[in-house]
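Operator note (shift B, R.M.): manual run for PA14 domain-containing protein requested after the automated queue skipped it. Running by hand, logging everything below so the morning shift can see what happened. Input copied straight from the record, untouched. If output looks odd, do not overwrite the archive copy; leave it for review.
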Amino acid sequence: DMFTMQTGDVWSFTTTGLGGGVKGQYYHHDGATPHDPASLAFRTLVLTRTDPQIAFQWGDFSPDPLINVEDFSVIWTGEVEAVFTETYNFYTNTDDGVKLWVDGQLIIDNWTDHGTTENKGTIDLVGGQTYPIEMWFYERGGGAVAELRWSSPRTPKDLIPQGALSLLVKASGANPSNGATDVQQTTTLSWRPGEAAASHQVYFGTDEDAVRNADTTSPEYEATKNLGSESYDPPGKLAWHTTYYWRVDEVNNL
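Run finished. Output pasted below as returned.
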């Protein structure tokens, strides 16, 4: 029998980033102590969800039926992907306080009670690369607003779109912070786990390149920690006036 073959077209699709948005952790506050991580601002976790964008005009209403109308705070964490290699401006528009970190750099810090206020910070980014982003917000009283925008020479100022945001799969929140000085000789390293992490591989040493390139057969490999154990105590006392480097790899269960 005769037959003919009709060659099909090549179709394509591109998957979104993990989650397509940022992780929002919503907390209640007792209203009596200052809104600060050392107080109750981020201690009573009430709700965790994925927010497509940070684009909220709550006014005199609550973000969710579980959340107070007043005296609440939010930590948003994720990654942002730069489109172009150039200087980016980030803008927070909030009522009340706000802090913003991009790639570990605190670029906006207005941790005060205030009406709707726009703040701006700048940072150089490389197109196609993703960077950790973290925004803290609290609402004391009155209307509540939390918005995050960006711009660059080739990016019009606008709310950061969902497509540029993704959940953070790498470890983050390094403590001591990256580049910290005057760290005690007996310090505990800690971090926040990435989304879908099942365990953490810890690398530590005094040679930056060696730590960067190490694997589990290298002398710099220290331990594998289970999810829920996001800390590590270096053995013995650390040397005086010495720079140490460390890395945490997330082993995911995706």
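Quick read of the result: Residues 208-213 form the longest helix (6 residues). The CA atoms of residues 204 and 220 lie 5 Å apart.
Leaving this for review. - R.M.
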